[in-house]
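ok, trying the design again with the full structure, not the truncated one.
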């Protein structure tokens, strides 16, 4: 293990590379990363870095976003098969059809979409800024929000805007039930429930705080409370326990595990830095349009 970590450190300097890791990644990957965060924080970092190589420890749509924002850099996805069901379910042809039926509507696409869908979009968003993005759009225009119906309904609730919600969603957050939360509350009386907005509306109603993964981490850090039920993917426990040494965290359900987020290994990171493969390259004609939608998001919500 130490040999691999040493090799990664050496190769990183030789390649002038930066390692970005999502907070759902395995602990040992978060440990070797130069920067950890959620989709929004990582997209900000990818846009601002002066490294020549971005090693993206996450899933494909995140690496695509990095390549769209920094096309002059090499973007590597060490786990080439790390996908996302929500991404796979968002077909460009279906989005085109829905938008053709609503010529005056604006399209907001969550970053968990293929680059070709971002290229059709008015603006992108992440779970950190979906409310702010929806609020920034003209009040007299219909909004179509793809692909997470639960996040779309959360943005609609918070902004009081009419939002047409796509029927997609994250299978990990979507599987959490009211029964799971009530069982966790019974097992850990007094613990606050911190929940991701990709959970279903009836489940969100059980939460003390609803926010993005980084929002959950910040809330736990700043709260006077010392125990929390965490209703998002379990990888976030690494960052929570690193930042809040004296606090206690309990997963809302053992089912909160995304297998795609666990596909990166130290060996794959070393191989990627050695071979500069597998690369993620978004074709230029899609990339330029997709970048406009991502940059609008970054302009509104901060770089
Ligand atoms: S946690 Fe959900 S949205 Fe994130 S990569 Fe896994 S399936 Fe996709």
């Amino acid at each position: 293990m130490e040999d691999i970590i040493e090799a990664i450190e050496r190769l990183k300097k030789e390649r002038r590379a930066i390692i970005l890791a999502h907070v759902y990644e395995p602990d040992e990957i978060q440990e070797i990363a130069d920067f950890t965060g959620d989709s929004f924080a990582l997209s900000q970092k990818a846009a601002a870095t002066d490294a020549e190589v971005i090693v993206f420890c996450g899933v494909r749509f995140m690496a695509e976003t990095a390549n769209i924002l920094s096309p002059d850099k090499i973007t590597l996805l060490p786990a080439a098969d790390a996908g996302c069901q929500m991404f796979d379910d968002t077909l460009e042809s279906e989005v085109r059809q829905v938008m053709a039926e609503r010529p005056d509507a604006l399209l907001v696409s969550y970053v968990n979409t293929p680059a070709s869908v971002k290229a059709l979009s008015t603006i992108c968003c992440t779970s950190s800024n979906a409310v702010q993005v929806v609020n920034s759009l003209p009040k007299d225009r219909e909004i179509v929000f793809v692909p997470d119906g639960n996040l779309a309904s959360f943005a609609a609730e918070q902004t009081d805007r009419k939002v047409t919600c796509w029927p997609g969603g994250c299978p990990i957050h979507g599987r959490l039930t009211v029964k799971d939360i009530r069982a966790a509350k019974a097992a850990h009386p007094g613990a606050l429930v911190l929940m991701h907005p990709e959970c279903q509306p009836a489940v969100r109603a059980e939460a003390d705080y609803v926010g993005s993964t980084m929002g959950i981490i910040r809330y736990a850090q700043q709260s006077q409370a010392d125990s929390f039920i965490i209703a998002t993917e379990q990888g976030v426990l690494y960052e929570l326990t690193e930042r809040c040494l004296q606090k206690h965290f309990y997963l809302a359900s053992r089912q909160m595990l995304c297998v795609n987020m666990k596909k990166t290994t130290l060996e794959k990171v070393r191989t990627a830095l050695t071979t500069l493969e597998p690369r993620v390259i978004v074709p230029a004609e899609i990339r330029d349009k997709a970048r406009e939608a991502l940059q609008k998001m970054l302009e509104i919500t901060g770089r």
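Keeping the full-length input from now on. The CA atoms of residues 78 and 272 lie 6 Å apart.
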